[in-house]
């Protein structure tokens, strides 16, 4: 395995870890009440959970 391949593997593993962590956060937050707002259009919804995940990343 070359240095670039090791780097890619490390990045991939970290991205997968963060994605699993964010998924856990979403699952827990969805059990609670959350606020829904709109963005630029009434059909473009965003929740506090969305904002929390965005802040995490």
UniProtKB/TrEMBL annotation:
Q: What Gene3D superfamilies does the entry give?
A: Fructose-1,6-Bisphosphatase, subunit A, domain 1
Know the name of this protein? Myo-inositol-1(Or 4)-monophosphatase
